[in-house]
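hiii so my PI (J.) wants the whole complex modelled not just the main chain, which honestly fair. so below is everything: two entries, each one labled with what it is. i double checked the lines twice but i was tired so who knows lol
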Amino acid sequence: MQITEYLKTVQQRCDDHLNRVMPVKEERPNIIHEAMRYSVFAGGKRFRPALVLASGKVFGADEAALLDLACGIELIHTYSLIHDDLPCMDDDDLRRGKPTLHKAYGEGIAVLAGDALYALAFEVIGRCLTAESMAEIARATGTAGMIGGQAADILLEGKDITPQDLEYIHSHKTGSLITVCLTTGARLGDAAAEEITTLRDFGERVGLAFQIVDDVLDETGSTETLGKKSGADKDREKNTYPKVHGLQSSIDQAVTLIEAAKNALVLPGHDTIILELLADFVVHRVM
Amino acid sequence: MQITEYLKTVQQRCDDHLNRVMPVKEERPNIIHEAMRYSVFAGGKRFRPALVLASGKVFGADEAALLDLACGIELIHTYSLIHDDLPCMDDDDLRRGKPTLHKAYGEGIAVLAGDALYALAFEVIGRCLTAESMAEIARATGTAGMIGGQAADILLEGKDITPQDLEYIHSHKTGSLITVCLTTGARLGDAAAEEITTLRDFGERVGLAFQIVDDVLDETGSTETLGKKSGADKDREKNTYPKVHGLQSSIDQAVTLIEAAKNALVLPGHDTIILELLADFVVHRVM
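here's the output for the full assembly
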């Protein structure tokens, strides 16, 4: 199976379901609902939902529950992009080829729309997850995870940092949410504790590789292909893998991480091919 | 019992528990943790936790679970104040007698600390609530509740609005979170569906009265007693009850709402005295 075809199917299913779970813009407060939809339907690849669906499928999880979880996590991802793009954060004007939300609707609406997407995410995942899994997602998106990475990223801009600091930023900023896609997806099926651990290891490597590739693309891609301003990291003196390790070494590290992730993905009696293809997809973007 | 004494005990218990559940500032990312604590320990009255504890107590809920819920909701309340104070929202410089978080730590940190408090809240309430109750809190804090009210508040600044619009803003911005304190607190005990409905009605009236009183105090209080800039609503052409209904009528409406709330709080076989005293406390601030 072509992974791009699989991703296309996931994208269609997610977009349909997101359309169902999100308030329509005719509903009050209209502008916030319109703004939420502007960002959610800006053309995301739905890579995180694909991880949720693939991981859950490995363990025979219920499809409807998986779709709720996948969409809930995509709402969280979108909220994080909106807040990261704000002038007081990364100050980005372009996202997925469109003006960022604060450029299109103003900063106040952007902050609130982000907040609202995060709230909606917990409403949606509350339908399918246990309280314990919901708390796991909260933790992965708080200071022990996503926010922790984003905070360090901003606080260390323009400073010389160690490779360890850089790995901390990347594994938290991007890796935590990617990892929790895999663990919570599997928990919706019949996954055992040691299988969850295997998926966590897989997710941590894939997540780190994903952010390294993002750094590489920021340097090598064009604004047109990226849908956001290329070279923005360099302009802002961001700490990136190419800056700290050089371009080729960064690509090599990403490839090595993906190989290690796939090799360690040993789940006897389970078909993990889609997860492996999704891992390959991460590095194929720069190969 | 004096309600101020009760509130003092609640404050002490909550502050101790918040101190336990919040990451220490020595933990990475340090500045975010420091900023979160700056706002959470700025001297809040802990009125919402008091509602949670009182409501749960009526139905014999477990004290440890109630304390987690109470603190989780206080984290959400604090996050909402941090984001509301931002320059792109209400643009306030003073809160509880101290510089607002973005004044003290910068806007980027304030956005992230708010986000992080919301995440932490779901981590904490995940210990005590069911997934369904967690989703109820998510809903009360999203566009169907708190964010909906705040969005309308900002979008309608400086415009002439109807009393219905004003009630929408107040009941959502403030009432939704207050109501969910009561319903989720009771759900931790043995409350039946019709008792939850009774508490919801009580919460909606108390919540609306609470925000009306806040409007009144903004006009009549001093910056010193309020701990935030008095007259700020007028300066920003906010839609307030005094602006739309006049000062005395606003006070009268708040008093009437509290009386109606108490009269309808009929829970046979249960002692509701603390809830009634907490309702009285809301209007005693302007009487």
